[in-house]
Design a protein that fits this description.
Layout: H1 3-19, H2 29-44, H3 46-65, H4 68-76, H5 85-106, E1 114-122, E2 128-135, E3 141-151, E4 154-162, E5 166-167, H6 168-183, H7 185-201
Antiparallel strand pairs: 1-2, 2-3, 3-4, 4-5
Helix pairs in contact: 2-3, 3-5, 4-5, 4-6, 5-7, 6-7
């Protein structure tokens, strides 16, 4: 290898180290930015992808940035402790699929919207709220904030605040409590799976 080639390689690795420092910690907004990029891609390709394509595109990203097992546990509240390991697994699976399907259904078109992460602020018990919004071409702003916690050394989304105010987990918890009270957890699992199947059958509608 020539001296000039060695110098080029050395310069490359120096730049790499500066851009990607060893052990550099991801900020809480990192998962939100990843989610925003995936949602924008789904929106821009909505017609070509169809609902099934958007679902397949979003599934691996949402599985990485959300913590669906913890969200499912919080959503069913104290009933979680009464479930068998098998029931917890099936409920988490149904919850995750229903959540992914909901995102695939909501973000079903593109007309020039953009996503903006506008800040991070502390939440309760070590959590962080990431302020995020969708800006429409008209200038209308739709806030969608996220609550994140550090789990196993990584920031993960544990709740979504629609219009920056309404906790999706709180809404789900109220809904799920009512379903479990009337028909038990098996009814809840069945309803979640039916919701996913219905959205897939109707193309997200």
């Amino acid at each position: 290898m020539t001296l000039s080639a060695v110098r080029v390689l050395a310069a490359y690795f120096l730049v790499f180290i500066i851009i990607h420092p060893a052990g550099a910690a991801e900020r809480p907004s990192g998962p939100v930015r990843k989610l925003n990029r995936a949602l924008l891609q789904a929106m821009q390709g909505a017609d070509a992808l169809g609902f099934e394509g958007r679902y397949k595109l979003l599934a691996p990203v949402l599985t990485r940035v959300f913590t669906f097992p913890d969200m499912a546990r919080v959503s069913v509240g104290r009933n979680w402790h009464q479930l068998s390991p098998a029931q917890r697994g099936r409920l988490t699976d149904a919850f995750a699929k229903s959540s992914i399907a909901t995102f695939a259904a909501r973000f079903d078109g593109y007309s020039g919207e953009r996503f903006e992460v506008t800040g991070e602020r502390p939440g309760l018990r070590g959590a962080v709220i990431v302020d995020n919004r969708i800006v429409k071409p008209s200038g209308e702003i739709v806030p969608i904030n996220y609550l994140l916690r550090k789990l196993d050394g990584k920031w993960r989304i544990v709740d979504v605040f629609l219009k920056a105010r309404y906790s999706e987990l709180a809404i789900k918890r109220s809904e799920y409590r009512s379903i479990i009270k009337r028909g038990g957890v098996e009814t809840l699992i069945r309803k979640l799976n039916e919701k996913t199947i219905r959205m897939k059958s109707n193309g997200g509608g």
